[in-house]
Amino acid sequence: MQIAINNDPAFVRTRENGAEFGSSASSGKLLRGSLFSMLQTAADNRVVSRVTKVMTDIKNLDPTSARGLRNVGVGIALPAGKALLKLFNFNKRSILSSILFKPYNVNIGTGVITINGLEPINDLAYPVGATHVTLKGSWLKLDFVTGLYDLQLSNSVNLPINGAPTNVILTPAGIPAGAGTDLYLLQIEFFQEVNLIQYSLKNGAHNVLCIVEVN
């Protein structure tokens, strides 16, 4: 049967669909791999299939490639493709809008993410037992055609969960090199302090990793 699928003209649509699905899955794997370090505490157990679904939707926007050859690299260049990735949350149990209630700003020229006057106890939905929160940003340049990427992490801002306002400024270590799509991400992780040591609350219920801007 497999030989027939591989060669029989009757299965040409099946072969085309399979090729495009494989391409979308590879693009999803590339994105997840580029963010591996950030995903360790902020991803749900269906993130692989959810990312692949988004990549498939982006691939479907490709207006120029022949059927069977449509790919994410073409689709993501369109405004509609970028829109499909913007505000994607890698942890469906903890989406950014349900955790952070303070406006943020993303400077696409510098990658700096700013949250002015953040009061953790009032502006965050934090888990029971959490005493501190860490916010981190990143600027990822990812080329879905070549598979090359460069991730620049920002400083981490660690705050006690209280009512003191803080201007949070997350600045990437540098401007990522190369070509491709610019993705700007915000990560929020909660901790519990015991005897002056902060322990990550890794149950994943409240930790956030979200693509806040795409350019």
What's the helix and strand layout?
Blueprint: H1 2-7, H2 12-34, H3 36-39, H4 47-59, H5 72-75, H6 79-85, H7 96-99, E1 105-106, E2 113-118, H8 120-123, E3 132-142, E4 149-160, E5 166-170, E6 181-194, E7 197-200, E8 208-214
Antiparallel strand pairs: 1-2, 2-5, 3-4, 3-6, 6-7, 6-8
Helix pairs in contact: 2-4, 4-6
Would you write up a description of this structure?
Strands 3, 4, 6, 7 and 8 form a five-stranded antiparallel β-sheet that branches. It contains eight helices and eight strands, in the order αααααααββαββββββ. The mean pLDDT is 91. α2 crosses α4 (47-59) and α4 packs antiparallel against α6 (79-85). It is 30% helix and 28% strand. β1 and β2 (113-118) form a beta hairpin. It is an alpha+beta fold. The chain starts with a helix and ends with a strand. It has helices at residues 2-7, 12-34, 36-39, 47-59, 72-75, 79-85, 96-99, 120-123, and strands at 105-106, 113-118, 132-142, 149-160, 166-170, 181-194, 197-200, 208-214. The protein is elongated.
